[in-house]
From TrEMBL:
<dbReference type="GO" id="GO:0016831">
    <property type="term" value="F:carboxy-lyase activity"/>
</dbReference>
<keyword id="KW-0456">Lyase</keyword>
<dbReference type="GO" id="GO:0005737">
    <property type="term" value="C:cytoplasm"/>
</dbReference>
<dbReference type="Pfam" id="PF04909">
    <property type="entry name" value="Amidohydro_2"/>
</dbReference>
<protein>
    <submittedName>
        <fullName>Putative metal-dependent hydrolase</fullName>
    </submittedName>
</protein>
<feature type="domain" description="Amidohydrolase-related">
    <location>
        <begin position="5"/>
        <end position="204"/>
    </location>
</feature>
<dbReference type="InterPro" id="IPR032465">
    <property type="entry name" value="ACMSD"/>
</dbReference>
<dbReference type="GO" id="GO:0019748">
    <property type="term" value="P:secondary metabolic process"/>
</dbReference>
<dbReference type="GO" id="GO:0016787">
    <property type="term" value="F:hydrolase activity"/>
</dbReference>
<dbReference type="InterPro" id="IPR032466">
    <property type="entry name" value="Metal_Hydrolase"/>
</dbReference>
<keyword id="KW-0378">Hydrolase</keyword>
<dbReference type="InterPro" id="IPR006680">
    <property type="entry name" value="Amidohydro-rel"/>
</dbReference>
Amino acid sequence: MAKSLNDWTYNNYQNWQGAIPFGTFYPEEGVFSYVKEAVEVYGFLGFKLHCEVSKLNLNDPELSDCFGYLEKKEIPIVIHTGTAPLPGEFTGIQFFKPFIQTYPKLHVIVAHMGAHEISAYASLLDEYSNLALDTTMVFVDFLATGKETDVDEAIPLLERYKDQIYFGSDFPNIPYNLNHPISKFLDLPISDKAKQKILFENAKNRFFK
């Protein structure tokens, strides 16, 4: 199924101006082959993995060649590894820590800032310079992560790690207008420089070198 999703993305992403093609993969026969195809033939600029929905163990040996390849190629992966809105069999910092220790130079963007374990994921940012977080559904009124996020805990991280945080939205599959997370983010008590980096510069520098 993962390869068919990649094929669909390749055949359709050019219909949307400015779209950045991301693929996905799963521990199965042929996975390394279609990951290489996505990068070297399709020109994908990243991948997205969802550990809860896919019941995917980041430490599965069948994925080691893929992660090693993407680490060497400096291809980023957005990973939903946190326990929000619901924990899964392979979600949580206890699975992520051994993973990032195995691939310390891999470019990883942890979705939702790792909610509900934001502090635990943020504690790794100093050690792993290629690790980043995204703000998807963290600073919004809707309880998208299953319960209220500790915003007071998360806000200082935006300033301290402004070079390692990306704005995220989950658009178009969101329960509110896209203007909502943008306006909520712009109202946060952080510097204009941090807002500029998180909203625009970090992604620009990552994907449009």
